[in-house]
Amino acid sequence: MKKSLTILLAEDHMMVREGFRTLLELEPDFSIVGEARDGRTAVALARQLQPDILLLDLAMPRMNGLEAARQIRLAQPACKILILSAHSDDAYVEQALACGVSGFLLKQSSASLLTHAIREVALGRTYFTPSIAKRFRSHQTSLPGKLKKKLTTLTSREREVLQLIAEGKTNKATALELRIGIKTVEKHREHLMAKLDIHDTAGLTRYAISSGIIENSVQITII
Question: Are 195 and 150 in contact, with CB atoms under 8 Å apart?
Answer without folding.
Answer: yes
